[in-house]
């Protein structure tokens, strides 16, 4: 791959979201890889600089490594389009929909794609007296998720009405809308997408209550299996479901789709990510390595997704 065609590249990372710490690690890893490959790449933190400086500094394209709000929710993508600067990954609509867990569920459900039973509660109308009924209707164990956060921030697994009330109240600190989802007992998988291809699936296993922020980024007890242990037919099935789910939300370029598999072998969609983690230990690089791709090759492929918006 000739890197000269990319020109002057800004790697956007850091930002002001709740995922800033993870973004700093992802962005630095990608920046180092691009520099090692000879790309004219530069760090750019929107928390410390205005986006208009990208124009003033004559950047020719942007690689987005901002996780969460302000980087993954369509707002940055819209700004870059207005500035006329090509950028990596999904566009405005795909970014916004994939970031919103509630609207993702609505679209997947409308298309008949498998997703767990759920209920949406709003900060303005939430009634704690309904917690018992909600818990019962959703099977007795519920995952509480702020609608627009990533990295499991603000999430909780609850099994009593009191726990549900407390978890929803906590989640409202991150978002005005919260998704309550029936907990699926089983194995967790993720599938990474790169261009038109799916990478080998990964199975995650943690001794913690669920695959939360600590399990993802801080714990040494989380186990990752790649290959995931699925047979060829199941692997193909899961990859196709990932493609359908990502496309349904308008996702493009690259991303990751997360799943649960219940004891009967049924897969359920959890969420889609348009700017997944890209540290040396993250899931997408792990899947790429299994597919025979180095971290540097992966970073260049991600950068190449900006070609569609030249």
TrEMBL record:
Needed cofactors: Mg(2+); Mn(2+)
Reactions performed catalytically: 2 D-alanine + ATP = D-alanyl-D-alanine + ADP + phosphate + H(+)
GO MF entry, a single one: ligase activity
Family annotation (InterPro entries): ATP-grasp, ATP_grasp_subdomain_1, D-Ala_lig_Van_CS, D_ala_D_ala, Dala_Dala_lig_C, Dala_Dala_lig_N, PreATP-grasp_dom_sf
Pathway connected to this protein: Cell wall biogenesis; peptidoglycan biosynthesis
SUPFAM superfamilies found in the cross-reference section: Glutathione synthetase ATP-binding domain-like (SSF56059), PreATP-grasp domain (SSF52440)
Keywords from the UniProt entry: ATP-binding, Cell shape, Cell wall biogenesis/degradation, Cytoplasm, Ligase, Nucleotide-binding, Peptidoglycan synthesis
Annotated EC: 6.3.2.4
EC primary class: ligase
Signal peptide limits: none
Domain ATP-grasp intervals: 105-304
Gene3D superfamilies for the chain: 3.40.50.20, ATP-grasp fold, A domain, ATP-grasp fold, B domain
Compartment(s): Cytoplasm
Role description: Cell wall formation.
NCBIfam families: D_ala_D_alaTIGR (TIGR01205), PRK01372.1 (NF002378)
Family to which the UniProt record says this protein belongs: Belongs to the D-alanine--D-alanine ligase family.
UniProt-recorded name of the protein: D-alanine--D-alanine ligase
Lineage, uppermost ranks: Bacteria, Pseudomonadati, Pseudomonadota, Gammaproteobacteria, Alteromonadales
